[in-house]
Specification:
This protein is an all-alpha fold. Helices cover 71% and strands 0% of the residues.
Length: 72
């Protein structure tokens, strides 16, 4: 259950304290979507040797880090 405790802690940090265990379990797989999408985008940019794609990835990550909204 360590991974569920991790998800529950992350949801609490993000302000979702009123979610029940069932709702938190449904959200758990989506908690990894944004980091995975960022890694894929950086990998594609690196594989293509494209500064544009890598720069777009960096910009999206910066928006997510500096604001409460994220492009994904």
């Amino acid at each position: 259950m360590a991974s569920f405790d991790f998800v529950r802690r992350r949801l609490n940090i993000q302000g979702f304290r009123s979610l029940g265990d069932d709702a938190a379990a449904q959200v758990a797989p989506w908690m990894r979507f944004t980091p995975t999408a960022n890694v894929v985008l950086v990998a594609v940019g690196t594989a293509l040797g494209s500064p544009l794609v890598t720069g777009i990835a960096a910009l999206m990550m910066a928006i997510g880090a500096l604001t409460s909204a994220h492009p994904f």
